[in-house]
């Protein structure tokens, strides 16, 4: 160690920044490079120091010293953005000072590398901007730099000015504003969206464009290109659309971008497409667009699913046809494309357009082709409108009643599959464990991997640990202090993690001991019976790996549903008996709950074989197999505010000392648990494991998660709706709780959540487990309470029907609609009751289902609503539904 390096290291360790700056100022490149190994060693030492250690005060000086002593641009950038250094960085002015004597070209390279770092590197903007000034290089336009610049403009206005003033004085205004259009999600930032007055970014950019400081064409082209690129969030699109609107384009500027507006109409998000549609509407009405281009535009818009856009385009088509009837041959076939739209109201509008303008077709070859095209497209209409269309077109067979026989289409019934055995080699097992730790897998993959860990830990623990090394290397607990790790696993096993961490000696034995301090049987949340039982088995497995390894697991399922063949369990207990192994209490309890009970003769045979084992577990299994265990607890429905819930009675077979305390909680009445502000069990991946814990009893799980799904639907939040298809596929009876879960899912806010509920609905129907009367009644009651919105229910049932399940969808709507219609029927009089938003859509879906399925019968309160005055969508669709039901009843 040289004298110079010794002084520098003392300054670094003591955190003396002023001494450090003075020392590096007089050092040569060679002297600086000589200090780098010692600085790296200190950095390594500090990583092992606790966060509260006094040694941590060396981080800012270490950060500055490393930047000053590295002589390569790449090395400096890597040092400045080191993950542990970024939390206690040196101030940017200090870093600029220690780097300021370098060659400008070298500094420019450092800036480039810093600016290209990801946002997570958190490189200070002041540092990058200061180096740009020293280097005299072009300003970077990377995401990190642009976002930092935008924050800097906002911070500066709080100190001494406004956003518009700071932008006006910025020397790199044009380059950085142009970069805004290329930076992902920059428009969604709050300092753009929520500024006001002179601090409003949209106002500032618009004003600077008017002043000529920003090129108008660049601004307009940038906005349009950004919107054309697509993929941005709603907030991001709203900002750039607002900027484009604020620029107030002239007619010439709008006209020269007709191709762009057309592309936006076809593919942009609905708000952007609506703006482009309004721009093109003016050109279409004054003839500047041309009939051919207008036809192309209309075809693109009518292909979209958004009803508002499609309806607006049909209105525009009507105006153009009225202004110029000679375009009928070209435009009417385009309008007929709306016949295939999923919304029957859109179909009706398109058909009325045909009725008004079909006479405008000239009797020539073009008119004949147009009629043929419209006739072909009419086949996509619902049966009622289709007959009207064929009559209008004079197509052959229009007066003949439909003779096709309706056939319900439902998805194939899912069948359970046998689980593969645990991986034979530690290498194969390690690969599966790595995949499961990285992303949640299915129940089958989890259970066979868990059994594989137990088997290989019993055979050769050292070989297993070595093979698991790469999979465990990325886990945070591998190099963390024992305290946080124990606290983490004390709160939850976190699936396979607790077992893997135990194999690596990262969890203390006391943390793994079964928790026996939960004497209050009403403690915990409503999920605790399932969650604590699941956790208890994982803790037991980890504890036994540490103290008394098990040869294999008793409760590993035979089938993918979680069910366990009784004969398999007897065979496993026999191996335990012969080897002298002691079964795990929680593992054996889980095995009992998983035994499949659908074959009485197989159960009797397995019970006889179990008694012959002569062990306590064998006798307990025999008793369990011969006990008439109910398929589900006694349940009752109750209403709590806007929610309908299900409460369970006690499960007698779970009482006594035959089950561990955690498992006995499964038999407690659900009414003993009250709603809690927070519980950690909202992960639907965890819920799927609960289903496999109690196969054949989906109600037991559905009742526990019903509160979560109901609150998510009512409060419009994210919920575990992805669990619903698995719930529907589960073995066992689908009762009150399962149907209510599906009902709440059909009313979920997000389309993907409603789709999961539709999948569950169709699976229940395919398996013959759907009680349409029960589900429809629940939906009707929830809709009246306001918990399920008719508009969302309409979209969900339309999706279900469009798969070919029109009969199934109608069987549900037949029960759901009367309560909603009753409210309107009771409100008849001088001032009729207003219809809930989306009820007209819902009645329209019902009419579509009746037309396609040929359903018969009457619907209570439908006649009263159909006889209301006016021609609203609700009244029109009610009349259509009534007419169709009466027609099919003939």
Short description:
With 890 residues, this protein is an all-alpha fold. It has 47 helices and 2 strands.
Tags for this model:
890 residues, mainly alpha, MgtE N-terminal fold, two-stranded antiparallel ribbon, 47 helices
Plain-language structure description:
It is flat and about 100 Å long. The mean pLDDT is 89. With 890 residues, it is mainly alpha-helical. Helix 43 packs antiparallel against helix 44 (806-826). The longest helix is centred in the last third of the chain and has 21 residues, at 806-826. The protein is built from 47 helices and two strands. Strands 1-2 form a two-stranded antiparallel ribbon. Among the domains are: 1-140, MgtE N-terminal fold, CATH 1.25.60; 426-626, no CATH class; 635-683 and 695-831, no CATH class.
SSE inventory with pairings:
Elements: H1 3-14, H2 17-25, H3 29-48, H4 59-69, H5 73-80, H6 92-99, H7 104-115, H8 125-135, H9 143-160, H10 163-168, H11 173-180, H12 190-193, H13 201-210, H14 216-229, H15 234-246, H16 251-255, H17 258-267, H18 270-285, H19 291-302, H20 307-323, H21 328-335, H22 344-357, H23 365-378, H24 383-393, H25 426-438, H26 443-459, H27 461-473, H28 482-491, H29 497-503, H30 509-512, H31 528-547, H32 566-579, H33 585-594, H34 600-612, H35 616-626, E1 635-640, E2 643-648, H36 661-664, H37 684-693, H38 698-715, H39 724-729, H40 736-746, H41 751-766, H42 772-785, H43 790-802, H44 806-826, H45 839-853, H46 862-866, H47 873-888
Antiparallel strand pairs: 1-2
Helix pairs in contact: 1-2, 1-3, 1-4, 2-4, 3-4, 4-5, 4-6, 5-7, 6-8, 7-8, 13-15, 14-15, 17-18, 18-20, 19-21, 20-22, 21-23, 22-24, 23-24, 25-26, 25-27, 26-27, 29-31, 31-33, 32-34, 34-35, 38-40, 40-41, 40-42, 41-43, 42-44, 43-44, 43-45, 44-45, 45-47
């Amino acid at each position: 160690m040289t004298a110079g390096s010794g002084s520098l290291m003392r300054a670094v360790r003591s955190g003396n920044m002023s001494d450090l700056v003075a020392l590096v100022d007089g050092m040569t490149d060679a002297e600086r490079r000589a200090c780098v190994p010692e600085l790296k060693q200190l950095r390594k030492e500090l990583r092992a120091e606790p966060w509260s250690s006094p040694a941590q005060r060396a981080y800012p000086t270490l950060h500055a010293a490393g930047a000053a002593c590295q002589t390569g641009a790449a090395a400096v950038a890597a040092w400045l953005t080191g993950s542990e250094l970024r939390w206690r960085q040196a101030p940017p002015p200090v870093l600029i000072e220690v780097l300021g004597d370098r060659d400008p070209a070298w500094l420019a390279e450092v800036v480039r590398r810093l600016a290209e770092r990801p946002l997570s590197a958190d490189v200070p903007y002041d540092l990058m901007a200061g180096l740009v000034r020293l280097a005299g290089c072009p300003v970077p336009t990377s995401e990190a730099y642009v976002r930092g610049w935008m924050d800097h403009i906002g911070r500066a206005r709080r100190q001494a000015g406004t956003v518009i003033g700071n932008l006006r004085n910025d020397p790199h205004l044009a380059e950085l504003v142009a970069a805004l259009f290329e930076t992902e999600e920059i428009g969604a930032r709050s300092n753009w969206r929520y500024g006001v007055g002179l601090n409003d970014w949209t106002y500032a950019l618009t004003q600077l464009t008017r002043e000529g400081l920003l090129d108008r064409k660049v601004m307009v082209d940038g906005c349009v290109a950004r919107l054309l690129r697509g993929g941005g969030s709603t907030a991001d699109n709203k900002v750039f659309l607002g900027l484009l609107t604020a620029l107030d384009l002239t007619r010439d500027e709008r006209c020269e971008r007709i191709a762009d507006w057309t592309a936006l109409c076809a593919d942009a998000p609905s708000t952007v497409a609506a703006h482009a549609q309004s721009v093109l509407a003016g050109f279409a009405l004054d003839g500047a667009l041309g009939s051919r281009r207008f036809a192309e535009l209309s075809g693109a818009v009518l292909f979209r699913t958004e009803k508002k856009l499609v309806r607006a385009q049909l209105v525009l088509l009507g105006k153009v046809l009225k202004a110029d009837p000679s375009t009928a041959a070209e435009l009417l076939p385009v309008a007929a494309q709306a016949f295939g739209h999923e919304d029957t109201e859109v179909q009706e509008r398109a058909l009325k357009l045909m009725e008004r303008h079909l006479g405008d077709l000239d009797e020539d070859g073009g008119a004949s082709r147009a009629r043929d095209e419209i006739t072909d497209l009419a086949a996509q209409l619902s049966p009622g409108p289709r007959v009207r269309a064929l009559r209008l077109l004079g197509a052959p067979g229009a007066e003949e009643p439909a003779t096709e026989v309706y056939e319900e289409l439902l998805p194939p019934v899912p069948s359970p599959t046998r689980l593969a055995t645990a991986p034979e080699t530690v290498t194969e097992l390690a690969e599966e464990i790595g995949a499961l730790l990285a992303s949640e897998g299915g129940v089958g993959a989890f259970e066979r991997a868990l059994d594989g860990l137990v088997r290989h830990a019993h055979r050769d623990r050292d070989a297993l640990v070595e093979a698991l090394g790469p999979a465990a290397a990325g886990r945070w607990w591998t190099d963390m202090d024992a305290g946080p790790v124990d606290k983490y696993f004390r709160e939850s096993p976190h699936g396979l993690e607790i077992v893997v961490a135990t194999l690596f000696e990262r969890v203390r034995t006391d943390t793994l001991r079964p928790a026996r301090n939960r004497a209050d049987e009403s403690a915990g949340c409503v999920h605790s019976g399932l969650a604590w039982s699941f956790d208890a088995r994982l803790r037991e497995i980890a504890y036994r790996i540490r103290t008394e390894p098990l040869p294999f697991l008793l409760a590993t399922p035979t089938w993918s549903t979680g069910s366990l063949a009784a004969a398999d369990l007897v065979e496993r207990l026999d191996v335990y008996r012969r080897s002298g192994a002691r079964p795990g209490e929680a593992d054996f309890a889980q095995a009992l709950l998983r035994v499949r009970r659908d074959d009485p003769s197989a159960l009797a045979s397995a019970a006889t074989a179990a008694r012959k084992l002569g062990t306590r577990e064998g006798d307990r299994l025999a008793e369990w197999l011969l006990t008439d265990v109910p398929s589900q607890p006694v349940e009752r429905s109750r209403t709590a505010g806007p929610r309908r819930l299900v409460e369970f009675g006690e499960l007698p077979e779970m009482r006594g000392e035959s089950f561990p305390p955690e498992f006995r909680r499964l038999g407690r009445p659900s009414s003993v648990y009250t709603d809690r502000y927070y519980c950690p069990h909202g992960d639907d991946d965890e819920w799927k494991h609960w289903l496999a814990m109690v196969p054949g009893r989906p109600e037991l799980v559905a009742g526990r998660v019903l509160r979560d799904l109901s609150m998510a639907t009512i409060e419009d939040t994210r919920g575990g709706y992805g669990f619903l298809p698995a719930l529907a596929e589960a073995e066992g009876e689908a009762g009150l709780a399962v149907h209510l879960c599906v009902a709440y899912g059909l009313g979920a806010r997000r389309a993907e959540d409603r789709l999961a509920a539709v999948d569950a609905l169709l699976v229940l129907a395919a398996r013959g487990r759907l009680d349409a009367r029960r589900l429809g009644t629940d939906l009707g009651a929830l809709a009246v309470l306001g918990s399920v919105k008719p508009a969302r229910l309409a979209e969900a049932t339309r999706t279900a029907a469009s798969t070919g399940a029109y009969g199934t969808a109608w069987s549900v709507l037949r029960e759901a609609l009367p309560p909603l219609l009753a409210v309107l029927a009771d409100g008849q009089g001088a001032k009729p009751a207003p219809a809930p938003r989306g009820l007209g859509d819902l009645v329209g879906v019902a009419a579509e289902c009746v037309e396609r399925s040929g359903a018969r019968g009457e619907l209570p309160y439908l006649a009263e609503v159909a006889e209301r005055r006016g021609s609203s969508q609700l009244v029109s669709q009610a009349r259509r539904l009534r007419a169709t039901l009466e027609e099919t009843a003939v």
